Amino acid sequence: MDYKNKTILITGASSGIGRELAIVLADFGNNIVVTARRENLLQDLKREIEDKGSKCLFFAGDATDPKHADLVVRETTKTFGKIDIAILNVGVGPASNTIKDSREVILGKMRTNYDTLINFFVPVIAQMKSQTTPCMIAHLNSLATYFGIPMQGDYTAAKAAGRIFLDTARMELKHFGFKHVRIQTIHPGFVATEAVKDDGIPAPNEISEKEAVKYILNGLRREVHENRFPFSTALAVRIGRLVPTWLRTKILLSEAAADY
Ligand SMILES: NC(=O)c1ccc[n+]([C@@H]2O[C@H](COP(=O)([O-])OP(=O)(O)OC[C@H]3O[C@@H](n4cnc5c(N)ncnc54)[C@H](OP(=O)(O)O)[C@@H]3O)[C@@H](O)[C@H]2O)c1
């Protein structure tokens, strides 16, 4: 999918991968709509986007609130008439412990990583079904979506739920004849963003935000269903899915911190 002169919504764009994506996409004469809770960061981002010649709207709000998502989609289409690409990027995965954490912490991770996806998916898909030109929903998932991983149990579960939901949405779009709507899940390995700097989770083959954005843009262009990167981590995960559970457990536990 081409990303020039398009209307592009990016959720969770005040920092990290979402922010870097917005800045790079601003080079291509797009209408860029960005969301997050930290309004001051979105204001700075809007200035940077406009300095590069793209248009920008920002909406400060909490993506766990469905009303926020409805408003963003409504106002975006009122201003720009359509949404060509929606990059649903909100998500966090600080270190966790399935056998110590409270219900609130575990379910909170589901709200931030899964509910935020669904809150935007529902109004975006309704809008895109009404459009006629090619358009795409791309979800920032993770390579940590295929099996449980120590220190990331709640996060991996939420990302797995998102992946399976979108797999089904892709089938149903085809079944019901909405061939112009593409669904992509983006599966980065470890990316060196501020959010994960001191999280204590081992991060082999970590790549920079800039590298991650290059992979993401390449995936959007090629319209792959699942964009997994970098190759080394994607290959390790693929092998991890094939080996017996006892061996995968042994390898993953050998990487986990002694206490957390
Ligand atoms: N970094 C990695 O290693 C890595 C690897 C694989 C996948 N990912 C995925 O990539 C995405 C971006 O991660 P990142 O590392 O760039 O993290 P980040 O810098 O913390 O970005 C997360 C963004 O989401 C926003 N956000 C969080 N909770 C929100 C809420 N309730 N409502 C609205 N906005 C919210 C944050 O903004 P506010 O705080 O201002 O709201 C921020 O803009 C996530 O989905 C993550 O799971 C990251």
TrEMBL record:
<dbReference type="GO" id="GO:0016020">
    <property type="term" value="C:membrane"/>
</dbReference>
<dbReference type="InterPro" id="IPR002347">
    <property type="entry name" value="SDR_fam"/>
</dbReference>
<dbReference type="InterPro" id="IPR020904">
    <property type="entry name" value="Sc_DH/Rdtase_CS"/>
</dbReference>
<dbReference type="InterPro" id="IPR036291">
    <property type="entry name" value="NAD(P)-bd_dom_sf"/>
</dbReference>
<keyword id="KW-0560">Oxidoreductase</keyword>
<comment type="similarity">
    <text>Belongs to the short-chain dehydrogenases/reductases (SDR) family.</text>
</comment>
<dbReference type="GO" id="GO:0016491">
    <property type="term" value="F:oxidoreductase activity"/>
</dbReference>
<dbReference type="Pfam" id="PF00106">
    <property type="entry name" value="adh_short"/>
</dbReference>
<protein>
    <submittedName>
        <fullName>SDR family NAD(P)-dependent oxidoreductase</fullName>
    </submittedName>
</protein>
